[in-house]
Design brief:
The protein is of the alpha/beta class. Helices cover about 35% and strands about 15% of the residues. The chain has helices spanning about 40-45, 60-70, 80-85, 95-100, 115-125, 160-170, 185-195; strands spanning about 1-5, 5, 15, 30-35, 50-55, 75, 90, 110, 125-130, 175-180. The strands form two sheets. The chain has an eight-stranded parallel barrel, surrounded by five helices. The protein has a two-stranded antiparallel sheet with strand order 1-2. The relative contact order is 0.15.
């Protein structure tokens, strides 16, 4: 996945902060969705050059101005044409249509609403975006940890939401849109899944204990 000058590894989980306060974006957030105001975007870019800025602009005209000011990700199928012209990434629900209109395949984040949809999109090779707090969890269960990984330390988020994030991470979702207060605990839950899948060292090792 590539957004502006930012390239993300296919194995990484990415935290996307929704409705971010421009003055209180968590340092660990990699993408932040902010008010579609070009002047605000210019200031954020100066303060946080390593941050990917997303906007859910209401109209193509505003979206274009935001892209010119530094937005690297546009949110919504109605902004497909702007993403194609400006080369920005796009959060969409119809990737085939977006690509046919000229949007870069490596800049697409496909917004899914179910585990089945996530699995289908993963099979196509596109990046899956999920919003755990608004996505139906269904009959979810998280993989057994075998005692090798620490649970999230600060349960600020609804445990059902964290379970939802964990299951989507297990099936291949890569980008997780969460409120700012849930960034740290969501990251810990996703790190646990990465450890179970062998993508990173476990947080806590209990080997050799009797």
């Amino acid at each position: 996945m590539r957004l502006a000058s930012h390239a993300f590894s296919i194995s990484d989980f990415v935290i996307y902060v929704a409705d971010a306060d421009a003055d209180a974006i968590p340092e660990s957030a990699q993408i932040a969705e902010v008010t579609p105001d070009p002047e605000l975007l210019t200031r954020i870019r100066a303060d946080r050059p390593g941050l990917v800025i997303a906007v859910a602009a209401p109209t193509p005209v505003i979206a274009y101005a935001c892209a010119e000011a530094g937005a690297a990700l546009l949110v919504g199928d109605h902004l497909t044409a702007v993403a194609a012209v400006t080369g920005t990434g796009l959060v969409c629900s119809e990737p085939a249509h977006a690509i046919s209109q000229g949007v870069r395949a490596d800049g697409l984040l496909v917004d899914v609403k179910s585990v089945a949809d996530a699995e289908e999109v993963v099979r196509t090779g596109h990046t899956v975006l999920v919003t755990p707090a608004s996505t139906p969890s269904g009959d979810l269960s998280t993989p057994a940890t075998g005692g090798r990984n620490a649970a999230p330390a600060a349960m600020t988020a609804d445990p059902a939401v964290l379970a939802t994030a964990a299951v989507y991470g297990w099936v291949g979702a890569k980008v997780f849109r969460v409120p700012a207060q849930d960034v740290a605990v969501t990251r810990e839950a996703l790190d646990m899944i990465a450890s179970i899948k062998g993508k990173r060292p476990p947080t806590v090792s209990r080997r050799g204990l009797v």
